[in-house]
Amino acid sequence: MSTPAPGLREQRKARTRKAIQEHALRLFLADGYDATTVERIASAAGVSHMTFFRYFPSKEAVVENDEYDPLLIEFIRTQPAELGPLTALRNAVVLGMREVYDTDKDALLARTRLILTTPALRGRQWRNGDSTQRLFAEALATRTGGDITFELRVLAAAVLGALSTALTAWVEGDGAEDLPSLMERGFDVLGHLDS
Amino acid sequence: MSTPAPGLREQRKARTRKAIQEHALRLFLADGYDATTVERIASAAGVSHMTFFRYFPSKEAVVENDEYDPLLIEFIRTQPAELGPLTALRNAVVLGMREVYDTDKDALLARTRLILTTPALRGRQWRNGDSTQRLFAEALATRTGGDITFELRVLAAAVLGALSTALTAWVEGDGAEDLPSLMERGFDVLGHLDS
DNA sequence: CTGAAATTGTTATTGACTACCAACTGGTAT
DNA sequence: ATACCAGTTGGTAGTCAATAACAATTTCAG
Lengths: 195, 195
Description:
Chain A is mainly alpha-helical. The first copy, chain A, folds into two domains: 8-61, Homeodomain-like (Arc Repressor Mutant, subunit A), CATH 1.10.10.60; 65-191, Tetracycline Repressor, domain 2 (Orthogonal Bundle). In chain A, 73% of the residues lie in helices and 0% in strands. Chain A contains eight helices and no strands. Chain A is globular and about 55 Å long. The termini of chain A are far apart. The mean pLDDT of chain A is 92. At the A-B interface, helix 5, helix 6, helix 7 and helix 8 of A face helix 5, helix 6, helix 7 and helix 8 of B. Chain A binds a DNA duplex through residues 7-9, 12-13, 37-39, 47-51, 53-54, 57-59.
């Protein structure tokens, strides 16, 4: 179902999609986000601007990466039920991030820097954070068979705040520090917010 | 300096600015954000669309409200130094919010609902949250004469997450619950994130 | 091989936003 | 009062993101 028979059609579509995304990233990093027009990206990828918008709903969307969320959700669900929600979330995040980080570090740094330094993309990212918060709260709730409570939503939002702070600090330090460690530090802070 | 001699010119400018903002809000609430063009707002306010952009950098910006931040910063700074940062922030936020809430509740609800239900505005709001986080961290740091640390930044981000969750829940309940109380509940959750 | 469906390109349109220039208005010096 | 100057405004034209309509092309199924 996730792979609906890889006919010639699907292969071409996948190739086109990847081409658009790669050329877009390359041009954004080279010339800047605002200075790169959709028309330019499309022609670099060998398609028309109409086709661009058939593959991505907006210019901003081409930078997004939805791969992480499903992986994280799975990690959250499989955490032992006796763990508290913060610990479960911490384990899942560190687990997932370590994997991405070790294989994709440079690309992740470039992409994150691009997002954080481009106002339009920063807004978009946070807008996604909103749905990520919902996903986190939901995963935490189903893990213990409970409902999504106000408390879980606040926890998910706080964790996202900590994670985005870690990402920001990581980029500010030009990727010199270990990102998963920064995130663990963020979780540590959340665990001692009693003063 | 904040009032550069109220000559006729300044008065006119202030009046024009307010007229644009009020007509914009009215039209947004009546017809929806996307269905309202800048041209329409401008003509309703009796100016050209060029003048609109001379007063506001974008269509989104006309919905913003920068009044709260300086007030909050002041409240944070004047909290007793012996309080922990979370408590200081809590007191300041509840103090400031109570004041706004008791005088502007209906307008606040309408405006917040508009922002939360309009994707473009939601993104914008979070983009501001980024600078608000910096302001919070800075205010907390100067309060005790210290530097802006990673810990303070995480704390500020977590608080903003809790506050936005409270706002969201408040709008979801159509303003039936007491917003400051919801925010206090959010702070309570943050104070017990040890599990 | 032929027809149905999906994919794409061309063209045109809307709307946010900017640049440029000409007209006007409030404040100021004479 | 007059004339001058700076700040404010509007009109026009332009760019760019995003959408719609239609025609041409290509893939797949029978």
